[in-house]
Design brief:
The protein has about 625 residues and is mainly α. The protein folds into 2 domains: about 450 residues, Up-down Bundle (Cytochrome C Oxidase, Chain A); about 150 residues. The chain has 19 helices and 4 strands. The strands form 2 sheets. Strands 1-2 form a two-stranded antiparallel sheet. It has a two-stranded antiparallel sheet with strand order 3-4. Strand 3 and strand 4 form a beta hairpin. It is globular and about 80 Å long. The chain starts with 11 loop residues before the first helix and ends in a 10-residue tail after the last helix.
Length: about 625
Amino acid sequence: MIPDQRDMGLDDAALQAALRRVWSSRGGLLGALASVDHKTVGRRYIVTAFAFLLLGGVLAMLMRWQLAQPEARLMGPDRYNQVFTMHGTNMMFLFAVPVMEAMGGYLVPLMVGTRNIAFPRLNAFSYWVYLFGGLLLWGAFLLDMGPDVGWFAYVPLSGPQYAAGKRADIWAQMITFTEVSALAVAVEIVVTVFKQRAPGMSLDRMPLFVWAMLVTAFIIIVAMPAIVTASTALILDRLVGTHFFNPAEGGDVLLWQHLFWFFGHPEVYIIFVPAVGMVSAIIGTFCRRPVFGYLAMVLALVGIALLSFGLWVHHMFTTGLPRLGESFFTASSMAIAVPSGLQIFCWLATLWGAQPRMAVPMLYVLAFFFTFVLGGMTGVMVASVPLDTQLHDSYFVVAHFHYVLIGGAVFPLLGAIHYWFPKVTGRMMREVTGRWACGMIFLGFNLAFFPMHILGLWGMPRRVYTYQPELPWAGLNLFASVSSVLLAGGFLLFFWNAWRSARHGAPAGDDPWGGPTLEWATSSPPPPWNFTRIPVVESVSPLWDAREALPVAEGLRLDRRELLITSLMDATPEARDSSPQDSIWPLLAAIATSVMLIWSIFTPWAVVWGSIPVAITLIGWFWPRGTPEDES
């Protein structure tokens, strides 16, 4: 027993031994299931999200080969509608948003210098709910009950009159799973950033990635209740007999589109804004200088967040809305290019004359520049009402959408995986294999999706499962489908490189890239307690600016899990707070919640009876156990 039970005056070995007794999880399956370590939960999120990416990629290949030739018979219309809906739903709700939040959940506590994320049991609960929601969707698809109403589920086609069976109900309830998960992680990130930053890390010293995740969390908190409201109203229309979207009974079908796209367009920036932080982290490290225009970058992030809520109607220009309203949303859609362009110029100013190290993460950043700028240009084009009226629901929009999301989010994400892979695993990803994968993905993506701009201009509509041979679309469709094989091969090479490197990669050391932020100040991979001593921050690039070693703060207890609480603005130490122990109750609560939500697809009484086991698990979760950390 440490005499004063504090970390003051101990050497590193004694301190680590004391921290190991308190912060390490129990061994075995039960210990793994009960873990609330943000790094464990983050790894699970990331691996699960990439598994869903792989499954979504298989669906994409099926669609491309169905469209490779006119009147192909690989799939019929019903199966194609399921595949099309599953691909979009899977990529947006089970991959893109969760993987970005997962990167934040893993990295933000390390980058702000704390020992765990805020509300760690809620963090574990959010993962299990996300996993069970994904299993619900894919289990239904394998049983030929997969949703077939598109990832947007427009009413009245998804309503009780036109969508018989339970397919649309499964889609709507899957939304509940993923949004509960996303909102939970968003709240955790906000509290972690605001109240658990290392001493001295004032708001103007936070890494740009942390700013990006903070802005993303606020977008989620504001936007996602809209889609939860919409999906719940759809379930009630289908299951209880309400008429939220039934015009014959006073409802409104356009209400669905307003609610859905009020979430759906900020969702694009929920995916893109974290990628901005990733690009900033990579460029700063490989240029060996802070990103130019720190304040401008932060204000651009905030500007994007604010403007993202004024764009949703540009998805609805063909619905007959008032012209004055369309003009407002056209202006907003064009205005959001300003902060995005400002970020591009700040990055270019950082690169100017810097002689950056052209490792694989930087190659993905360069790929991001090319594809995202092109996608942004086509975005400004479809912001114009007359042009959008012609191109709406054509393959031009498919091309634009993928250029923005893959170019603006997936390329930075793949670069970030290469960049932070040694931090997570302690090993380096193989550089040569990474370069080949990057080249194949970049080339395959552009060869597969650029022709879709032309197909859209030639009049090919999206969401069709076949087309007639006399139409002039066969050649470009075949070219895009063949090119998609190169794209798929690049992703498979990326996955193989990650899997093999995690086992046999070269040892990385604690800071292989020479990064400037706090995640590189601890070992790779980090211990369960993250930092043996809490660092004190004196600049935005503490590892570059520290003359010798980082100053540290002391005084946290060693007989329980304890965190340092700091002030909002200047990160001045204010209090010490306990962090909860591992617990199996978040998993049990997630199981009870999942059973209730799935059961409610078939009867509304499930909400009544299913709430009983949910309440029992929550009581077990929060039941006082006599110590402050168990009661947190």
